[in-house]
């Protein structure tokens, strides 16, 4: 890296530290966010698309594997809406849009009436609808459902991490 690039980079890093910026998962004396995320038990979510979301959430939250202890319970309501956006004159559909929404609630285990945090995550995806064999259409739908689940899991993970970062030892 040339000297002309190092100076602005160093100035930018100093400016970030001066404004109070701290990384979400970084240590600054607060409880380890990753450790708290690892203590979240994800409740079952209905239907196949819900199973995909639950698996994606567990992968996101339990980066180190299965948790040693569970202190929090995460309940998620999940739905996917499919709408036709490419209509032909003969009323056939050429493109479908999938909008997935997950509404979540975090509670302590043992007291499901006490809400610690809640939120919502939304994403969308689309697919071209063409005349294709059944297995190809099923494969495409499964891929879209997995992509929607992965994106929502990342959003929920970030929202939970932000909660734990601001509520040390919640």
Show the helix and strand layout.
Layout: H1 3-18, H2 33-37, E1 40-42, H3 47-61, E2 72-87, E3 93-108, E4 117-128, H4 134-166
Parallel strand pairs: 1-2
Antiparallel strand pairs: 2-3, 3-4
Helix pairs in contact: 3-4
Describe the structure.
The mean pLDDT is 82. The protein has one domain (27-166): 2-Layer Sandwich (Double Stranded RNA Binding Domain). With 170 residues, the chain is an alpha+beta fold. β3 and β4 (117-128) form a beta hairpin. The protein is 41% helix and 28% strand. It has four helices and four strands. A four-stranded mixed beta sheet has the order 1-2-3-4. It is globular and about 60 Å long. α3 crosses α4.
What characteristics describe this protein?
170 residues, alpha+beta, Double Stranded RNA Binding Domain, 4 strands
- Looking at the overall shape, the CATH architecture is 2-Layer Sandwich
The first-level CATH class is given as Alpha Beta
Summed up, the helix count is 4
* Separation of the first and last Cα atoms: 43 Å
Series of secondary-structure elements, N-terminal to C-terminal: HHEHEEEH
Q: CATH-wise, what's the superfamily?
A: Lipoprotein like domain
The CATH topology is Double Stranded RNA Binding Domain
The percent of residues in helical segments reads 40-55%
The biggest sheet amounts to: 4 strands, mixed
Stretches where pLDDT is under 50 for at least 5 consecutive residues are none
Instruction: Give the quaternary arrangement of the chains.
Output: single chain
Total count of strands:
4
Strand neighbour order, sheet with most strands? 1-2-3-4
Number of domains: 1
The averaged pLDDT comes out at: 82
- Basic shape: globular
Cα Rg: 21 Å
Helix and strand composition category: alpha+beta
Q: Strand content of the residues, in percent?
A: 25-35%
């Amino acid at each position: 890296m040339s000297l002309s690039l190092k100076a602005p980079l160093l100035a930018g890093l100093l400016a970030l530290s001066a404004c109070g910026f701290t990384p979400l998962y970084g240590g600054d004396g607060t409880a380890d966010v990753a450790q708290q995320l690892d203590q979240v038990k994800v409740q079952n979510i209905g239907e196949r698309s819900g199973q995909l979301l639950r698996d994606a959430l567990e992968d996101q939250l339990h980066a180190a594997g299965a948790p040693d202890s569970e202190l929090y319970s995460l309940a998620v309501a999940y739905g996917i809406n499919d709408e036709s956006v490419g209509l032909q004159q003969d009323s056939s559909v050429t493109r479908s849009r999938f909008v997935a929404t997950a509404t979540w609630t975090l509670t302590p285990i043992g007291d499901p009436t006490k809400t610690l945090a809640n939120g919502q995550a939304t994403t969308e995806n689309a697919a071209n609808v063409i005349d294709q064999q059944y297995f190809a259409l099923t494969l495409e739908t499964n891929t879209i459902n997995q992509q929607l689940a992965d994106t929502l899991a990342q959003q929920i993970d970030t929202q939970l991490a932000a909660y734990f970062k601001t509520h040390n030892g919640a």
